[in-house]
Amino acid sequence: xxxxxxxxxxxxxxxxxxxxxxxxxxxxxxxxxxxxxxxxxxxxxxxxxxxxxxxxxxxxxxxxxxxxxxxxxxxxxxxxxxxxxxxxxxxxxxxxxxxxxxxxxxxxxxxxxxxxxxxxxxxxxxxxxxxxxxxxxxxxxxxxxxxxxxxxxxxxxxxxxxxxxxxxxxxxxxxxxxxxxxxxxxxxxxxxxxxxxxxxxxxxxxxxxxxxxxxxxxxxxxxxxxxxxxxxxxxxxxxxxxxxxxxxxxxxxxxxxxxxxxxxxxxxxxxxxxxxxxxxxxxxxxxxxxxxxxxxxxxxxxxxxxxxxxxxxxxxx
Length: 317
Fold this sequence. Notes:
Layout: H1 2-23, H2 28-32, H3 37-47, H4 60-76, E1 79-80, E2 86-91, E3 94-103, E4 112-118, E5 123-125, E6 128-130, H5 133-155, E7 163-169, H6 177-184, E8 193-199, E9 215-219, H7 226-238, E10 244-246, H8 253-260, H9 266-269, E11 275-279, H10 298-315
Parallel strand pairs: 4-7, 4-8, 8-11, 9-10
Antiparallel strand pairs: 1-3, 2-3, 3-7, 5-6, 9-11
Helix pairs in contact: 1-7, 3-5, 4-5, 5-10, 7-10
C-alpha cells in the first residue's frame, strides 16, 4: 500500500510540474498540431527524390539534401552557430558536412539540448539507388518538424529556457564520422548539455515489440537522470499519445548493445553526456532499395514526433 501511495504522489507531483511547464506557453497545443503528416511527407519525398540519389556522403545528391535542410533551417528560424551552418570534415578521402543550427534560449545562460539526425545514406550502388526513407529521411523530417515548432514559439516570444541545437549529421554510414568529428571538437562544456536526443529510423511500424504498431523504441534511458524517464512517460500518458515505449530493444541485451553503438548519439556517451536514441528499429527494408516513402506510417510518425516535442518542452523549461 505504501509503494502504491508513493507512486500516486509522484504521479501527481510530476503532473503538476509538467502542467506548470506547459503553462509558460498557453497555446502550446497549437504549436504541437503543426506537427502533421503533410510537411513530414514533403521532407521525406524530397530527400528520397531521384535527384538526391540516396544522399551518400561526398555526392551531388548529398549536397542537394544539405541545401534543402539549410533552407528549412532558415525558414524555421534556426540560426547559424557561427559564420556558417556547415561544419566540414574529411573521411576516407571524401568531404562530409554536418549542418548545425540553434534556437537560443529565452533566458541568458541556459543549458543545452542537442536534437540530431543523420541525413546521409548509402547512395547509388551498382546503378541501384537506395532512397533511405526510413533510414534516415524520417529522422531528418522529425528533426525539421521540431525545429519548425520551436522556431515559431521562439518568434512568438514563448521560447524555452534551454538552447536547442539542431544537427543534421553526415557520415553516419561511414562509421559515425560526422558525429565523431563534432563531439571531438565540442565547444560547449559537456556538463552544460542536458541531453542529446538522436532520431534515427523513426518512420515505420512493421516491427512492434509487443504487437502494438503504435510504439517507439527508446535506448539509453539508464544513462539519463531518473526524472527524465518519468517525464517521458508522463508526456506519453498525459497527452493521450499512449505509445508503447520499449526500452530494451526487443528484450535482447546483445542486440541492444550492438544497435546502441551504431548511431550518432554514441560519440557523446564517451563525454558522459546523457544521450537517448529514438527509433522504430530495423525491418525487412533497412539498407535495401525498398526503403521507400510508401513504407512510412505517417500516423505513427506524427505521434512519435509529438512525444519528442512534449518531452523536449518539459525538460527545457
